Amino acid sequence: MNWITNYVRPKISSLLAPRETPENLWIKCPETGEMVFHKDLEANQQVIPSSGHHMRITAKERLRFFMDEGAYESVELPKVPLDPLKFRDERRYTDRLKDSRAKTGLEDAVLVALGAIEALPIVAAVQDFSFMGGSLGMAAGEAIVTAAEKAVEHHRPLVLFAGSGGARMQEGILSLMQLPRTTVAVEMVKEAGLPYIVVLTNPTTGGVTASYAMLGDVHIAEPGALIGFAGPRVIEQTIREKLPEGFQRSEYLMEHGMVDLVVHRHELKGTIARLLKVLLHREGAAGAVGEVGPLGEPEALRPEAAE
Fold this sequence. Notes:
Elements: H1 3-16, E1 26-28, E2 35-37, H2 38-43, H3 59-66, E3 73-74, H4 93-104, E4 110-117, E5 120-127, H5 138-154, E6 158-164, H6 173-176, H7 178-191, E7 196-204, E8 218-221, H8 232-239, H9 250-255, E9 261-262, H10 268-279
Parallel strand pairs: 5-6, 6-7, 7-8, 8-9
Antiparallel strand pairs: 1-2, 3-4, 4-5
Helix pairs in contact: 5-7
């Protein structure tokens, strides 16, 4: 055994070798350019502390922040054909799916879970934008339908977090068929007399906006979220006019009656719990409704409106 070869040389090599530093230790605020330490951002539910900008979060993070004690039970979802159209553009559709599954740890863009908020049992469905832009395909459609069926089966309210770029083009007409299917599923929940609350996150666009994302009993949006069918750039090119400042953003849509509430991520759990108690006629809910939040509330839900 050579001491210099086996010990000294590797030790010197390790000291001289370039050290790898993780690239995601600091996150840049898209609004102000401020650099925020990643652990501080996570502790603040992925909201930039100084600017209040709401960063995108994964479906699993969303459920962890939203459910009581971060505990929830994932619902097993039906399997669907992986590549019914044998679609290929620059890459095979199956390869894109494989990469997204490895990246997110999800089978597809929607995660369905059973849990509780403020001890109130609910069914939650969450779209994850990091899975192929949260696009709506057959698997995501099946997940929404399953969430509705679970809500009816367990007689629980359904809370849906929408975040999507629209229908999944790799599945063609099969993805578009999810619009009427999910619409029927939502009607099933309403016919059972159960509340359906929709939270619109950044972005919510395309076929999702044209179906289940706009059928809620109450529509809540996170601050600054882009919400609409076509994007603002497409609209500007079509009508050849400059759009108003903040067009299609949460605050603009609330002012024009398309969204009921704009609620900070920290307040979502408490706000939705109070709304559900009112809609379910739970005891002690009426006095708490006025605390829905400073960013706005539907007049019909204010205590004085019931008098």
